[in-house]
Design goal:
Number of helices of chain B: 14
Oligomer: heterodimer
Subcellular location (chain A): Cell inner membrane; Cell membrane; Membrane
CATH class of one domain in chain A: Alpha Beta
Organism (chain A): Pseudomonas jilinensis
Strand content of chain B: under 5%
Number of strands of chain B: 3
Low-confidence stretches of chain A: 547-554
Mean pLDDT of chain A: 86
Catalytic activity (chain A): Preferential cleavage: (Ac)2-L-Lys-D-Ala-|-D-Ala. Also transpeptidation of peptidyl-alanyl moieties that are N-acyl substituents of D-alanine
Helix content of chain B: 55-70%
EC number (chain A): 3.4.16.4
Largest sheet of chain A: 6 strands, mixed
Order of helices and strands of chain B: HHHHEEEHHHHHHHHHH
Distance between the termini of chain B: 21 Å
Shape of chain B: globular
Radius of gyration of chain A: 33 Å
CATH architecture of one domain in chain A: 3-Layer(aba) Sandwich
Mean pLDDT of chain B: 86
Strand content of chain A: 15-25%
Distance between the termini of chain A: 87 Å
Shape of chain A: elongated
Structural class of chain A: alpha+beta
Number of helices of chain A: 22
Helix content of chain A: 25-40%
Radius of gyration of chain B: 21 Å
CATH topology of one domain in chain A: Beta-lactamase
InterPro entries (chain A): Beta-lactam/transpept (IPR050515), Beta-lactam/transpept-like (IPR012338), PBP_dimer (IPR005311), PBP_dimer_sf (IPR036138), PCN-bd_Tpept (IPR001460), Penicillin-binding_protein_2 (IPR017790)
Structural class of chain B: mainly alpha
Strand order of the largest sheet of chain B: 1-2-3
Low-confidence stretches of chain B: 363-367
Number of domains of chain B: 2
């Protein structure tokens, strides 16, 4: 690089640096004088103060955990509350010998070996600041408290403390929707703000409890206390109160929930009801449920094993994680895609001999009605749930357009606003098959996709949502559980685009066909709509069960029953002003029209007819 | 034919610095033993790290300053690339991405190496130019300083980026940065900070800054340590409670008693007298560093030695200031005393550079 030749004056440079070094030295001495002065102030001027604190074994900052927000249904009925409970806390630094202490506790409280082992694990697993006590045994009885009090002198570092423990008064009825809290585990420990959770031992694990953890948790407070060497608090020097977590009010209606569970009876399945106008979830049933209270302070091995290994899978959230072939419950959307793309018109007809064949192929794709329905137009095809018509329509649409439209209705995407565990389901496409199966897309696969079988998988939530979307004539409202959190609403920033049709009248046409499913002479769900004082729209479906999706144990009698088709139904009412949209899935229920639709009818009646007998759960009362 | 050199000069060791380092290491041994709850294992580990650090220091001292000068630009570019690599493929721990994991070897923190490269780079750039630097040179120096600082800030590691930035700025200040620039920068800082505060920072970031400035407002987090360390220091009084007699520190009240907050243990057990003696030893180290700076024969060496010395002082000052509640809490260890191998090796490497500058003087070509 060429640059002008410059004579460097080393002497002058050296002098420059020298002046600065002297300056720096002066500066540093001044700062050190400051440090020494500070030390003098702390160690000489404030010596008395600090040594007194030190003598009394010292200032102690204790976190005060905030009370967790409660959860209510839309009528103000409590779904999750905080119940006072006495727990046994241990402060490790003050325990002289842990083993003897635990041995003594075991005999005093009549704990089993497993209880002791769990308590010891709690003590070692929990991250804590020094001198923070950890609850290890919960829900002490009066007698246990008394025994500890009597033996207190033999138990340094052990104390009985009143604290709040999460309680779910309706036990299994809202377990899947509300979720539950449990002890903070290692993974969560790494994720959470250690300061915000100081003194808190629980965190939302599933459902609403997890999704709105930040709002429910609140802000930690603290106390500056003086303690003596034995850990007794002498006085509180300063206290900042914690800020309680927000109370949440959900869209859920416990009465409707009770109706839904009652209608489902003892069967396994899922029911979800959505208010189309808001997307609010009115009922959320995944049956069987489980008692979330077991999880709060730590579930025993035996209890957990029973839940985990049950063939009925009570821990499995069927509403948002159950992946089922949607079957015929998507036909109305396929029909809308056909009209909107112009590949068929409302009046174009297909002849159904009981099966469908691709041109130049010998394979016969069967209609469920083996004898065939003869000439079928779109209206009749929906009313009769005619497979042949939809094979033909799917073939004309092709998988790409089918995928495009179904995705716009939310199939194969996560639709919920605040349901943490939601599975996306699967709306197959060429690209998906290339990536997942390393195979090209075959034309026959388009046909079975057209009747909601094959690779396609949807959750009951997605089916309820797509039905609400039709009731809304294309307006997207993401399904949500939260109504409000003391005035705060859930964040709605990412709502997908509404579904716009080229001809708005197509909505009315399809809804009319769904209405005829319920009220028409040949409708597949007409028996469920008998004597209704309002008009409803619906669509039945069945989903083939090829293998047991999640079954683990082998039980031939039970297995046979579990090979039967799942019964599906989606619908909304009233037709002219939709107030409720419902998806019902009854596992191995076989007939959507006969088994699933009546469940929906009961929900419609309960929600729309004012003089219905109110139904409710009995809450587990607090002890 | 060279004149026969004194022994120390032939092995390129500055005996004064070595002596002071050994004194500090001995103090460290006693305090660590007490702070760690009489853990000999910890003492051995720290001893091993110290041995490694000494070896690195002696090795570095063998290289001529001219050699370092020649490789500085390359080292700077390499350092930048490592910092970028940290952001791309770095290992995350406690929410910050600061380490590179070399397969089969240890984790390694590139910002640590930058602590040495930074003063070298600014010294390299300014050393070949007429001092005091013109506006253009100042501007380019600031670019040299700013790039790695921003990269480390992104990790995020506020404390380290500030310290590394400071080591570069020190070289600039020693080079005779004109007062009007210094004043200008200070004046410009105020509106810039205000604008950031009102228009850029989010609520939670502001809260973080406030806690940083006033840790006592966050008694469960940063402030917790401060409250406890003040009690430990204060209860030490003039003469201290005696070695291994500190109660505050031994009851685990101080969560970082053996690392960043070790001075609190020393202050509790050895009192004001102990703290003052320690500060005296540090001042002697700094005095020796400044003497080496004045004796250095070219601008590069002067700026480098001065910057290393001033940065050393900042470590001492910031650490003691933070533990005694004068300054915000930043993760700065007490040089040569705190437990931890990495910072020890980096510090001793810096002393190696000082020794090299001092003992290679006679061979430097004049002019």
């Amino acid at each position: 690089m060429a640059k002008p030749i410059q004579l460097k004056d080393h002497l002058s440079d050296a002098r420059t640096v020298q002046r600065r070094v002297v300056l720096a030295a002066v500066f540093m001495l001044a700062l050190v004088a400051g440090l020494v002065a500070r030390m003098y102030y702390l160690q000489v001027v404030q010596y008395e103060y600090h040594s007194t604190l030190s003598e009394n074994n010292r200032v102690h900052v204790q976190p005060v955990p905030p009370p967790r927000g409660r959860i209510y249904d839309r009528n103000g009925i409590v779904l999750a509350e905080n119940r006072p409970s006495f727990s046994l806390n241990i402060t490790r630094e003050r325990v002289t010998d842990l083993d003897t202490t635990f041995a003594l506790l075991q005999s005093l409280l009549e704990l089993s070996d497993e209880d002791v082992e769990r308590s010891q694990r709690r003590l070692t697993q929990t991250r804590r600041r020094p001198f923070e006590s950890v609850p290890v045994v919960f829900e002490l009885s009066d007698e246990q408290i008394a025994r500890i009090a009597v033996n207190q002198f033999r138990l340094p570092g052990v104390e009985v403390q009143a604290s709040f423990v999460r309680h779910y008064p309706f036990a299994e009825h809202f377990a899947h929707a509300v979720g539950y809290v449990g002890r903070i585990n290692e993974q969560e420990m790494a994720r959470i703000d250690q300061v915000a959770y100081a003194g808190t031992h629980y965190i939302g694990k599933t459902g609403i409890e997890r999704y709105y953890e930040d709002w429910l948790h609140g802000t930690v407070g603290y106390e500056e206390v003086e303690t003596n060497a034995r850990g007794r608090v002498l006085r509180v020097l300063k206290r900042i109160d914690p800020e309680p977590g927000r109370d949440l009010t959900l869209h859920l209606d416990s009465r409707l929930q009770a109706v839904a569970e009652h209608a489902l009876g003892n069967r396994r399945g899922a029911v979800i009801a959505i208010e189309p106008e808001t997307g609010g979830v009115l009922a959320y049933v995944s049956q069987p449920g489980f008692n979330p209270n077991l999880f709060v302070t730590g579930i025993s091995y035996a209890d957990y094993g029973a839940l985990r290994d049950s063939l009925d899978q009570p821990l499995f959230n069927r509403v948002v994680r159950g992946l089922y072939p949607p079957g015929s419950t998507i036909k109305q959307m396929v029909a809308l895609a056909g009209l909107d793309t112009g590949v068929v018109t409302r009046t174009s007809r297909v002849f159904d001999p009981g099966f469908y064949q691709l041109p130049n192929h010998s394979h016969k794709y069967r209609n469920w009605n083996r004898s065939g329905d003869g000439w079928v137009d779109m209206h009749l095809a929906i009313v009769r749930s005619n497979d042949t018509y939809f094979y033909d329509l799917a073939h004309k649409l092709g998988i790409d357009r089918l995928h495009d439209y179904m995705t716009r209705f939310g199939i194969g995407t996560r639709v919920s606003l605040d349901m943490h565990e939601e599975a996306a389901g699967l709306m197959p496409s060429r690209e998906w098959k290339r990536n997942a199966r390393r195979q090209p897309w075959y034309p026959g696969e388009t046909l079975i996709a057209g009747i909601g079988q094959g690779y396609m998988l949807a959750t009951p939530l997605q089916l309820a949502h797509s039905t609400a979307l039709i009731a809304n004539r294309g307006v997207w409202k993401r399904p949500r559980l939260l109504l409000h959190a003391e005035g705060m609403a859930p964040d709605e920033s990412e709502t997908p685009d509404n579904v716009h049709l080229r001809n708005d009248g197509d909505w009315d046409f399809i809804i009319a066909a769904m209405e005829a499913v319920m009220h028409g002479e040949r409708g597949t769900a007409r028996s469920a709509a008998q004597n209704a004082p309002y008009r409803m729209a619906g669509k039945t479906g069945t989903a083939q069960v090829v293998a047991i999706a999640q079954g683990e144990k082998y039980d031939s009698a039970a297995l046979q029953e579990r090979h039967r088709d799942h019964a599906l139904f989606v619908g909304f009412a009233p037709v002219d002003d939709p107030k409720i949209a419902v998806a019902v899935m009854v596992e191995n229920g076989e007939s959507g029209g006969r088994v699933a639709a009546p469940v929906a009818r009961q929900l419609f009646d309960a929600w729309l007819l004012p003089d219905q007998e109110p139904m409710s759960f009995t809450a587990e009362t607090s002890q | 034919m060279h004149r026969r050199q004194p022994f120390w000069q032939r092995i390129h060791v500055d005996p004064w610095l070595l002596l002071l380092i050994l004194v500090l290491a001995t103090v460290a041994g006693f305090v660590l033993y007490s702070a760690s709850g009489r853990s000999t294992a910890m003492l051995y580990r720290q001893g091993a790290a110290f041995a490694v650090g000494l070896a690195v220091m002696l090795t570095i001292a063998q290289f001529q300053p001219r050699f370092m000068q020649r490789w500085t630009p390359l080292a700077y570019l390499g350092g930048l690339m490592l910092l970028v690599a940290v952001l791309v493929v770095g290992t995350e721990a406690k929410g910050a991405q600061r380490w590179l994991t070399i397969p089969g070897m240890m984790r390694f923190q590139p910002s640590e190496v930058m602590k040495l490269i930074m003063p070298m780079s600014v010294a390299w750039y300014l050393g070949r130019r007429t001092l005091p630097p013109s506006f253009k040179y100042v501007f380019i120096s600031l670019l040299i300083i700013g790039l790695p600082v921003l990269l480390i800030l992104k990790q995020p590691d506020l404390g380290t980026s500030l310290l590394i930035g400071a080591s570069g700025v020190f070289a600039l200040l020693l080079a005779g940065l004109r007062w009007r620039y210094i004043l200008g920068a200070l004046v410009a800082l105020v509106p810039a900070a205000l604008a950031m505060w009102f228009f850029v920072l989010h609520g939670y970031q502001k809260r973080r800054v406030l806690t940083f400035l006033n840790p006592e407002s966050d008694p469960l987090g940063a402030g917790w340590n401060i409250i406890q360390s003040k009690a430990a220091i204060g209860s030490g009084g003039i003469y201290g409670k005696g070695w291994l007699q500190g109660t505050q520190s031994h009851l685990d009240f101080l969560p970082e008693g053996h690392t960043d907050f070790i001075i609190a243990v020393l202050a509790e057990e050895f009192g004001l007298v102990g703290v003052c003696l320690l500060i005296c030893v540090y001042l002697l180290v700094i005095a020796r560093g400044l003497y080496i700076t004045l004796q250095a024969q070219d601008s590069f060496s002067k700026l480098l030695a001065g910057s290393i010395t001033l940065t050393f002082f900042v470590y001492v000052f910031v650490n003691i200031g933070m533990v005694s509640g004068l300054l915000p809490v930043v993760g700065v260890p007490l040089p040569l005393i705190s437990y931890g191998g990495t910072s020890l090796v980096t510090l001793l490497s810096g002393f190696g550079i000082l020794m090299s500058i001092h003992t290679h003087r006679k061979w430097m070509p004049q002019g």
